[in-house]
């Protein structure tokens, strides 16, 4: 069961396709207010006390539903949770009232050093138990349910369970919702040679509340296939196909186009969002 | 299988020093191998940190060139670990690191000061907002009992080099670079609307603003300015700050207990 938020969102996220708000597009979005169903921002970009980013977001939030997506909480670290980071997250969540708040199933800190990356966890019962405790702490602190995203990875450990089983266990133990990054599922299915359809079938059907789509980079000439989750290109044909499987499995869900490097004109993102939205509309039209 | 702490410590060792950090046997390496797979993360972390430093210190990079800046970024990452998941905080020690780095300071003696200026620009960009009154209420009273509440973004810098002029030239390098013969320069840095502004100021203004920034009285600010230049006029200085929306209020000093 989902917890009631202490901070009901200003605007709920519709089951439509949105885009990640990126700096090169902010001025145009403020000036032209283009038709975008919803926007997702990186939480840490609003950790500063003030400045231009806050001034822009205060205006944007009145016109667009917002989602906050964090990258720095390091939930899977054995180091203690960064209380200052969590406190600041709580402050901006209270200020902007985003409809969704999400983080990653990864770690980044050990011995007080932050590696500023989404590092892979072993799929073990120990790691699942730690994550469940940390997610519960965050949900308690924020007074709301959060979504956790599956991350792309370039190595795996001598695991006790599959990645999908691990995520299902974390979700079941913590009561979090899931942000399903379909590109990350595809990337990992190639990098670690598993069946992505089986992966989707293993995830708890009712827990997925948001989907991410992004572009990737296929590395050539290596001894093993390797795809990097580069967020610098259009969504690949294979990921669009997997997205359709995900919609079949989880039903229509708010879907986000992520593009973080070599950022193209806004039209490119809106075009990708329109394509995702068309697929969502087809699912909406289908009988339940 | 080691426990999670041992695995994460090994992973961190592999990121810091190369090699497999002693966890190679725990990784399903396949034909690519554990070292190469760890290397993907090592590369991604270095690229992220380099990108952040480039965004924060563009003038430093323009002065030393891309290749040397990348070397500086690598050495900085290995000597000054990140302690925050908020990348806006990354690079706060970079000016101090450059000042201690002879390979950087010898060929470009003002490099650390340019880095300090760029970090203060970062601080100004991210500082708290403030409500600027349409007309600052200047209380009458003893200057020794009043203080000016400055805009939170206001920063100052003092350098033995013409650091503001050099920084401005780096942003628009037309004509010859500023001559070091121009000598010392003081400057103010602040946020104006969505942009960060900077300006050269008289050393007396810099001295007075530093005193005001520390929350001390108008009389102390006047004395600090006069110590630098007997002709210093605090009223004129305050009027200039008010005109740039850099004074939020003039209020009584808290009474001493």
Would you write up a description of this structure?
The complex is a heterodimer of chains A (288) and B (257). Chain A has 288 residues and is α/β, with parallel strands linked by helices. Chain A has a single domain, classed as TIM Barrel (Alpha-Beta Barrel). In chain A, helix 4 crosses helix 5. Chain A starts with 16 loop residues before the first strand and ends with a helix. Chain B has 257 residues and is of the alpha+beta class. Helix content of chain B is 49%, strand content 12%. In chain B, a hairpin with a 2-residue loop joins strand 3 and strand 4. The longest helix of chain B is centred in the N-terminal third of the chain and has 23 residues. In chain B, 40% of the residues are buried. The chains are: A alpha/beta (288), B alpha+beta (257). Chains A and B meet through helix 2, strand 5, strand 6 and helix 4 of A and helix 1 and helix 2 of B.
Chart the SSEs and their pairings:
The complex is a heterodimer of chains A (288) and B (257).
Chain A: E1 17-20, H1 23-32, E2 39-42, H2 52-60, E3 66-69, H3 83-96, E4 100-104, E5 107-110, E6 113-119, H4 125-142, E7 147-149, H5 163-174, E8 177-181, H6 182-191, H7 196-202, E9 208-214, E10 217-219, E11 226-228, H8 237-250, E12 255-258, H9 266-285
Parallel strand pairs in A: 1-2, 1-12, 2-3, 3-4, 4-7, 7-8, 8-9, 9-12
Antiparallel strand pairs in A: 5-6, 10-11
Helix pairs in contact in A: 4-5, 7-8, 8-9
Chain B: H1 4-17, H2 34-56, H3 58-64, H4 66-79, H5 94-100, H6 102-105, H7 111-126, E1 146-150, E2 155-159, H8 163-171, E3 185-192, E4 195-201, H9 203-213, H10 218-228, H11 234-243, E5 247-252
Antiparallel strand pairs in B: 1-5, 2-3, 3-4
């Amino acid at each position: 069961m989902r917890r009631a938020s202490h901070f009901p969102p200003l605007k709920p996220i519709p089951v439509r396709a949105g885009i990640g708000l990126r700096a090169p597009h902010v001025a145009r979005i403020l000036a032209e207010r283009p038709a975008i169903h919803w926007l997702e921002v990186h939480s840490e970009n609003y950790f500063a006390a003030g400045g231009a980013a806050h001034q822009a977001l205060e205006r944007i939030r009145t016109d667009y539903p917002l989602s906050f997506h964090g990258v720095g909480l390091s939930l899977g670290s054995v180091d203690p949770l960064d209380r200052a980071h969590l406190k600041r997250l709580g402050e901006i969540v209270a200020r902007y009232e985003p409809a969704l708040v999400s983080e990653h199933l990864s770690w980044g800190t050990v011995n007080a050093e932050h590696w500023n990356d989404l590092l892979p966890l072993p799929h073990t019962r120990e790691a699942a138990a730690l994550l469940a405790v940390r997610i519960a702490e965050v949900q308690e602190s924020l007074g709301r349910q959060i979504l956790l995203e599956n991350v792309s990875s370039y190595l795996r450990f001598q695991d006790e369970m599959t990645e999908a089983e691990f995520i299902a266990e974390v979700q079941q133990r913590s009561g979090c919702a899931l942000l399903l990054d379909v590109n990350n599922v595809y990337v990992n299915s190639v990098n670690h040679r598993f069946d992505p359809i089986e992966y989707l079938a293993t995830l708890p059907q009712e827990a997925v509340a948001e989907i991410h789509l992004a572009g990737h980079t296929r590395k050539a000439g290596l001894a093993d296939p390797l795809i990097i989750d580069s967020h610098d290109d259009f969504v690949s044909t294979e990921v669009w196909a997997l997205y359709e499987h995900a919609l079949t499995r989880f039903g229509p869900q708010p879907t986000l186009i992520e593009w973080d490097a070599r950022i193209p004109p806004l039209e490119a993102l809106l075009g990708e969002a329109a394509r995702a939205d068309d697929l969502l509309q087809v699912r909406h039209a289908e009988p339940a | 299988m080691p426990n999670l702490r041992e695995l994460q410590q090994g992973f961190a060792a592999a990121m810091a020093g190369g090699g497999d950090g002693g966890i190679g046997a725990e990784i399903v390496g396949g034909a690519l191998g554990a070292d190469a797979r760890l290397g993907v993360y090592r590369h991604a972390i270095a690229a992220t940190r380099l990108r952040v430093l480039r965004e924060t210190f563009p003038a430093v990079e323009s002065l030393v060139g891309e290749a040397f800046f990348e070397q500086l970024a690598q050495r900085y990452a290995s000597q000054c670990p990140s302690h925050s998941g908020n990348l806006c905080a990354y690079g706060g020690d970079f000016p101090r690191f450059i000042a201690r780095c002879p390979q950087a300071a010898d060929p470009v003696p003002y490099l650390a000061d340019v880095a300090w200026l760029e970090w203060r620009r970062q601080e100004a960009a991210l500082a708290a907002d403030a409500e600027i009154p349409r007309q600052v209420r200047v209380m009458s009273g003893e200057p020794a009992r009043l203080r000016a509440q400055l805009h939170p973004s206001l920063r100052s810098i003092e350098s033995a080099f013409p650091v503001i002029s050099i920084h401005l030239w780096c942003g628009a390098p037309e004509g010859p670079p500023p001559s070091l013969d121009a000598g010392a320069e003081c400057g103010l840095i602040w946020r104006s609307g969505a942009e960060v502004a900077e300006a050269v100021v008289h050393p007396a203004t810099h001295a007075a603003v530093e005193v005001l920034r520390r929350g001390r009285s108008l009389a102390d600010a006047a004395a600090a300015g006069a110590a630098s230049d007997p002709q210093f006029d605090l009223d004129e200085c305050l009027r200039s700050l008010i005109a740039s929306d850099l004074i939020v209020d003039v209020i009584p000093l808290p009474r001493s207990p």
